[in-house]
Amino acid sequence: MGIQSWMSLWFGLTLPAIMLMYMFKRKYVDTTVPSHLLWERVLKNLEANRPWQKLQNRLLLWLQLLAAALMVFALMQPFMQVSGGSAHIVIVADTSGSMSAQMQPEGSGEAEASSRMEQLKERLKAYIRDHGRRSEITLLSTGSSPVTHVSHESDRGAIDRAIEALHPYYGTASYRETLSLAAALTREEPDAEVVVFTDSHWRQDSVPIAFEVPVSVETIPGAAKHNVSIEQFGVSPKGATGSSYEGVAVVSSNAEGASSVEVNLYGDSQLLASRVVELEPKKKATASFSNLPFAEVYRLELASEDGYAADNESFAFGTGRSSARVLLLTSGNLFLEKALQLSGAEVTRIAVNGSAGGQGDQASGRQGEGGQDEGGQGAENKNDRTEPDIPPVPDGEFDLLVMDGSIPEGFTQGKWAELARQTPLWTIGGDGPKVGSEGGRPVLARHPLTSYLTMSGVYFGKLIDQQPAWGEPVIRLGEQPLVYAGVAEGRPRLSFQFLLQDSDLPLSPEFPVLVNNALDWMTSGSGTGLGRFMAGAQADIPVAADTVSAKWVPKSGLALADGPALAEVQLSESGISSVQTVPEVPGLYAFEQRNEAGETTSYWLAVTADPYEADWSTEQGPAVSQTGSDAESGGEDQDSGASAAEQRRAASQAGSLMPWLAALALAVIAAEWGVYQRGRSI
């Protein structure tokens, strides 16, 4: 129960005025006379005026007092909080990234701090319980596009479940689009209203959205904590050699006073450096990191807690090794070496001299690009050795080891054997029983190695008649396997069952394509950084031709901490689409692809939040207007307990009854005046 016009209580003075009229009313005594001739004398002698007489129990008095009290009560414009003020209530919930910020409720301690999203859910449930018990509810939220959670729903259980399912959207929120949808849903419904729940951090529009129904704004109260943001972060190679790296970060704070923050830099989960950055009020500071080792993924982290966690981490990817490093063991194969270099590989060649099968004198030496012997001994002394001179394993890490032809036994022992186990291995020819080629039509299995190939018209001589235990044939010549591909100890393996010298494949225009396919397939197992994308954006991701399934896997950041539902992988007519919608929660993700053989390929991708949601310098509500009315929505709460739309509707109805109440009062006064003048009452 509520009163809109307490000033109208002054009209209650009419009640004692009516009582005074009865107290001063003339009193006439009935007298029996014998003749009408005595009327004049009797009237003069017996007429008496008796003021201040005692009030008597008269029905007319009570009726007049009741009528006056009802009129005064109506002038005070009373209202009651009843359920179902509108037949249809459209609720717009602001679920932008700023709603994940921690708020300190007014008049409460630090331990009671909660996120704006949690407070939003409580306010929504309370509002529907108090004002929408008999109304149909439509719940909209601001995602990448307007999201309709329930429409014209009366089941309170379904509405509560929809409210609990609300979560922040960290991309560019559809503020204007959601308001436009709410206006369209209520355009043909005169008995409807729109209520917007927001934190007053609404992206402003120059042109307001016009509504034909009452619209109000409910603000989530509470004081926001300060926010420290990582605005920029990047890592790049230092110098021409790229042996070390340097990083730069830009940090800002919205705190009113000076503050400091600890900034930690990680490379592949290892702490590389730590800095304490001093922050001036409303200014930016720069943190530099030098002499960093190479890492696939760099992570910058703010160690302090603030009110907004979405911008406390940033990721960068190492770019110094964009080309694959290939270690080539060969007795001399110019076509293979040049094809690897054309594919973008950095080739380190080790010259291996020896006969097939490991018989006879063997020698080896390390050679550079020019082919000069780097073994330290002249060719004239090689025939004097009883055992091959095995060079040491070159320094550094390699993405692919290629063994072309017969390899001396020393390359299968010690550190060379360890390198072969830890590195993808591609063997061409080698030892083993040989058979002649039977000819036939090339048969190519579906595999990344065979993309864009036909292998038609290529001659093959002798073939190794030995199947490796780890692979399956992906290229056949009739019934004879030519190429095996598979995985051994978790790393790709590739075997050509022939020597390139026993085939005219190096002369084929498809040979560079085959080498490029082999290089891409064997070196793409490790994560490759695709860069940063805003939450909900579109990203182009390389998808292998044999991919049968893919998924987003959170690796670090808010994505891993919150444990949100993973984004769905987009499909196309041919399978997994190369254009994917990135997840909606900031953090580091891996887009994992799996082929029919169970082999996986991953691509790193960093997801960031919309920077607008981290800037709390201004507070503004949505720009809305009502057609045919001067009312505009504001950002203030309604302390009376009723919504602004209900108050406007109640005021409009009270105003329309005022003329009728005034006319009724005049009619009662006119009728009763005659009774008063006659001096009789009932």
From TrEMBL:
It comes from the Bacteria. Residues 7-78 form the Aerotolerance regulator N-terminal domain. Residues 618-630 have a biased composition (Polar residues). Residues 355-396, 618-648 are annotated as: Disordered. Keywords: Membrane, Transmembrane, Transmembrane helix. Pfam families: BatA (PF07584), VWA_2 (PF13519). The keyword Transmembrane helix applies. Residues 89-200 form the VWFA domain. The chain crosses the membrane at residues 6-24, 59-80, 657-676. Residues 367-378 have a biased composition (Gly residues). InterPro entries: Aerotolerance_reg_N, VWF_A, vWFA_dom_sf. This is VWFA domain-containing protein. It comes from Paenibacillus ihbetae. The lineage of its organism: Bacteria, Bacillati, Bacillota, Bacilli, Bacillales.
